[in-house]
Specification:
Layout: H1 3-20, H2 25-39, H3 44-64, H4 67-87, H5 92-107
Helix pairs in contact: 1-2, 1-4, 1-5, 2-3, 2-5, 3-4
Length: about 140
């Protein structure tokens, strides 16, 4: 799978699972049902039922602080979406549309497992540098 497509699949799975625990739940349910109805109408009701079961698991995982369970669900839906797009590459724009619809709702909530949360405590003359990616620090003289 191409890196760009793999990234889309990861983002879509994470977004859908994240939406399960938010006000975006109904949108996730509608969007995922729509994807499957277009390409596998005979499986759509089963996928929707499994999505509902996954929602219960996500809510339980968040209530219990079980990030591992949520990561497993993201992996499960990532596999499903990867298979869907491998068999039906014409669905890529529709999967992107699902992400575009649901991601803003998910981002309003707490950070998802697999995301980055940085916390630091400094005292005295200590210095803290935090970044989610590249850092270039020059200098180093004392003040």
């Amino acid at each position: 799978m191409e890196p760009e497509l793999a990234a889309l699949v990861r983002l879509a799975a994470s977004t859908v699972v994240g939406a399960m625990a938010t006000a975006g739940w109904e949108g996730a349910q509608r969007a995922m049902g729509g994807l499957w109805r277009r390409v596998h109408p005979e499986r759509a009701d089963t996928v929707l039922a499994e999505l509902g079961e996954a929602r219960v698991e996500v809510l339980d995982a968040r209530r219990n602080g079980d990030e591992g369970a949520e990561r497993e669900l993201v992996g499960e839906w990532q596999t499903r979406l990867r298979r869907l797009l491998a068999a039906h590459p014409e669905m890529v724009p529709e999967v992107r549309a699902v992400v575009d619809e649901l991601l803003p709702m998910v981002e309003e909530e707490e950070p998802r497992p697999g995301g980055v949360r940085l916390t630091a405590h400094a005292s005295g003359r200590s210095r803290v540098t935090m970044a989610g990616r590249d850092v270039n620090i020059t200098g180093g003289g004392s003040s």
